[in-house]
Amino acid sequence: MDELIESIRAAVAAEASPDARAAGANACRTILTALEAVAGEPLTAAVTTPSPIAAAVAMLRGVPPDQLLDLAIARLRAALPAGVAAPNVEPLKFHIITLPRGG
Questions:
Q1: Owning domain of residue 56
Q2: Integer distance in angstroms from the first to the last C-alpha of the chain?
Q3: Distance CA 35, CA 16 (A)
Q4: Which of 11, 21, 70, 72 is the most buried (most CB within 10 A)?
Q5: Phi, psi at residue 19, to the nearest 5°?
Q6: Are residues 31 and 9 in the same domain?
Q7: How many structural domains compose the chain?
Q8: Is residue 16 part of a domain?
């Protein structure tokens, strides 16, 4: 318990690093879980809802990259004002030049 309190003390210091603040927040959650526990029942952590960004990333984690790019392009095209069309883009063409080997 003393370690948890020390983590919280370090987290609330003015010069606390982001890692120290995260450790302090976890210590607070641990203490809160212990205080809300019912005698004789196992400790269970409170269920927290993930942020919307984390939920979106989790949803898109298994999608292939080319499908993600197609989705991004479609969303960007849909965001264009009415009557505006995206110009056609020519694919890149590379000319391969063979150089004579010097000796």
A1: 49-80
A2: 76
A3: 26
A4: 11
A5: -65, -40
A6: yes
A7: 2
A8: yes
- For 59, the token pair is 């949803």
Residues 6, 31, single domain; the answer is yes
Return the amino acid letter for 5: I
Residue 66 included in any domain: yes
* 65 occurs within a structural domain: yes
Q: State whether the Cα torsion 12-18-21-25 is positive or negative.
A: positive
**Beta strand residue intervals within 1-103, DSSP E:** none
Q: What is the pLDDT of residues 72-101, one digit of tens each?
A: 989 998 898 988 888 888 899 999 999 998
- Single pTM value for the model: 0.40
- Counted residue by residue, the chain has a size of 103
Q: What is the predicted pLDDT for the residue at 48?
A: 61
Distance of alpha carbon 89 from alpha carbon 100, whole angstroms? 34
| 86 found inside a domain | no
